[in-house]
Amino acid sequence: MNGLIAVEKNLSQIVDFLENEGYEVVNLDETDLDSVDAIVVSGADQNVLGIEDTLTEVPVIEASGKSGADILAELQKL
């Protein structure tokens, strides 16, 4: 899958890596979530109570502790 990926703005190394791998990357804060194929988040604002409100059906990948290659592997599984 080489699609449109929304990435949090603080993950610039992931953005660079995915663009070099042929993905189109957009800023998570500046896009319509239903128009992307996947979302990559830092995990910094993870819900500590375990209650999540899903705003989209798009797959979300948490980047915390993962390399660009790890993220790429997860995207390729989708």
Notable characteristics:
single chain, alpha/beta, 4 strands, 24% helix, 19% strand
Give your account of this protein's structure.
With 78 residues, the protein is α/β, with parallel strands linked by helices. The chain contains 2 helices and 4 strands; from the N terminus they run βαβββα. The chain is globular, with a radius of gyration of 12 Å.
Number of helices: 2
Order of helices and strands: EHEEEH
Large-scale geometry: globular
How many strands? 4
Give me the Rg, rounded.
12 Å
Helix and strand content put the structural class at alpha/beta
Strand numbers in spatial order across the main sheet: 2-1-3-4
Largest sheet: 4 strands, parallel
What is the average of the pLDDT values? 85
Estimate what percentage of residues fall within beta strands. Answer: 15-25%
Percent helix, as a range, is: 10-25%
Please specify the SSE layout and strand pairing.
Blueprint: E1 4-7, H1 12-20, E2 24-27, E3 38-41, E4 60-62, H2 68-77
Parallel strand pairs: 1-2, 1-3, 3-4
A few lines on this structure:
This protein is an alpha/beta fold and 78 residues long. Helices cover 24% and strands 19% of the residues. The protein has helices spanning 12-20, 68-77; strands spanning 4-7, 24-27, 38-41, 60-62.
